[in-house]
Write the structure tokens for this entry.
Amino acid sequence: MPLPELAGEHQAARFEDMGLVESASLLPERRIACLSPYGIHLLQQRFIWYLTRFLVPTHRLAEATEAVFEEAELEEEWVSRVAERGAARHASVEAFHQWIRSPDQSGSSRQERLADPQHRAGIRRAMRQHLAHS
């Protein structure tokens, strides 16, 4: 997949060179690029096409990934707020994952409830209240 003018030169993603990336490689200060949600959906669409020759509309990919992007935004906000208090990044990330995966008053984890758009604002509000009181 061509990635024109990435970091000042033409690059390409090779789908056969896939694998896990260590978290340390994903730190903001080490990144050379970060795709927008639409860019991620285009990448997913391209990869699905590569594997299956089926063209998935990007809006369907957006519907399937909304909760994941919401969780990523919540984590970013959590970590930046906690970092302002001097906490270590790794500890902040761990605390966020513990909080988002724990059940709320409904008995379901906040992470599970992000799948329903009706609950996202409430989870964001609960997170901000939690951070304000901790």
